[in-house]
Amino acid sequence: MAELSTIARPYAEALFGVARADSAGLAGWAELVSELAQAAAHPDVRAAVTDPHLDHAQRIELFSAVLKSPLNAAGRNFIELLVDNDRLLLLPEIASQFLWLKNRHEGSADAEIISAFDLTAAQVADLVAGLEKKFGVKIKPTVRVDASLIGGVRVLVGDQVLDTSVRARLAELRDALVA
Fold first, then answer.
1. pTM score > 0.85 for this model?
2. Tens digit of pLDDT for each residue in 35-83?
3. pLDDT, tens only, 103-131
């Protein structure tokens, strides 16, 4: 079976093309795509839209009804396309790829910074400056605390991981001693 990312890619690219040409702009579409993905990821919605007793029109109406934002014509067409092709549940992966395309277009990247302790604004700013220099893009950080790291930070930028945590260092030491 094909990877979900492979199946989702053409939909994300098509949606990105529509979003770039639309007057609502990429930011507006990114918000809508994020909302669509959140709705599609909800277990109750997933169960409802996969009900075999519903036809395509009912699935479209049901899914549209759970959204907070009203769908424009292009958004509704996109939902109809996904329902017709039985791809509605791929929305979280489509949204992830859409966001990646948006960030690449804007020359930015999302970074998840995981720290063992709370970071000050100055520490985050210094870390972001270093990451921007390393990756050559504007970094949009999300910071969270994970005490299991013991110390240090773990940074995820796209598919790259920079792990300077004490937990990672201890794991390396353990692996070296076992080898």
1. no
2. 999 999 999 999 999 999 999 999 999 999 999 988 999 999 999 999 9
3. 999 999 999 999 999 999 999 999 999 99
C-alpha dihedral over 168, 171, 177, 179, to 10 degrees? -100
Return the number of other C-beta atoms located less than 10 Å from residue 53's C-beta.
5
Contacts of 4 by beta carbon, 8 Å cutoff, 6+ apart? 90, 93
Are 81 and 73 contacting, i.e. CB atoms less than 8 angstroms apart? no
What kind and span of H or E run contains 64?
helix 56-65
CA 130 to chain centre: 23
Instruction: Check whether residue 80 and residue 115 sit in a common domain.
Output: no
Q: Which domain holds residue 156?
A: 107-178
CA distance 143 to 121: 10
